[in-house]
């Protein structure tokens, strides 16, 4: 005799089957739910570095190079102020201003001269090498002051390959060189130092390039 299933039992079985077919998750309506967008992280604020004021005395500490182009400009100005002499410089000069107050110049430069006196002319070649050491300081009006303690500077003059002593003339050139105290206020940046130097006329500003420090 076949056992009858009650209507309530059939309803329960049908309900269970429906849950299985929909994945037991509540049906298709859940799949169509709108996804929640993730919050976009806010980037960290960029901090502006604090600008620290540097004094001239702190800024000029380091090793500086005066390039050949600046030597050409300096001696070009100087030769224009000396009658009957043309100057063609070459080479470089290094200046070190240490934080303990010591200073040193390393010279490896020179100039070719054309000297004309009436119908006579000659073309000496002057080579300046060696080191000048001493001390440096900054004045109240922002000039760099140099004191020489020791000098191994050597000035060689030749004409047609033969040594010659031009005496006062070479001394005159060396009195006006980028090896002196500044003639006016010095300005300094991270990369350059502008120094006024005396000539036989108005001072001329020369730009040194920082190579270390």
Automatic annotation (TrEMBL):
<protein>
    <recommendedName>
        <fullName>Lipoprotein</fullName>
    </recommendedName>
</protein>
<feature type="signal peptide">
    <location>
        <begin position="1"/>
        <end position="28"/>
    </location>
</feature>
<keyword id="KW-0732">Signal</keyword>
């Amino acid at each position: 005799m076949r056992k009858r299933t009650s209507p309530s039992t059939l309803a329960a079985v049908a309900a269970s089957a429906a849950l299985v077919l929909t994945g037991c998750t509540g049906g298709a309506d859940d799949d169509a739910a709108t996804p929640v967008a993730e919050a976009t992280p806010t980037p960290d604020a960029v901090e502006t570095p604090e600008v620290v004021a540097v004094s001239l005395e702190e800024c000029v500490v380091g090793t500086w190079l005066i390039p050949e182009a600046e030597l050409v400009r300096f001696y070009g100005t100087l030769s224009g102020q000396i009658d009957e002499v043309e100057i063609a410089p070459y080479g470089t000069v290094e200046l070190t201003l240490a934080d303990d107050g010591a200073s040193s110049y390393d010279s490896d430069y020179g100039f070719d001269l054309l000297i004309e006196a009436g119908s006579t002319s000659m073309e000496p070649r002057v080579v300046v090498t060696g080191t000048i050491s001493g001390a440096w300081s900054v004045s109240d009006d922002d000039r760099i002051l140099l004191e020489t303690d020791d000098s191994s500077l050597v000035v060689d003059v030749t004409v047609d390959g033969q040594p010659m002593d031009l005496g006062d003339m070479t001394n005159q050139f060396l009195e006006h060189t980028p090896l002196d105290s500044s003639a006016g206020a010095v300005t300094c940046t991270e990369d350059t130092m502008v120094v006024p130097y005396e000539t036989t006329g108005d001072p001329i500003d020369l730009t040194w390039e920082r190579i270390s420090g």
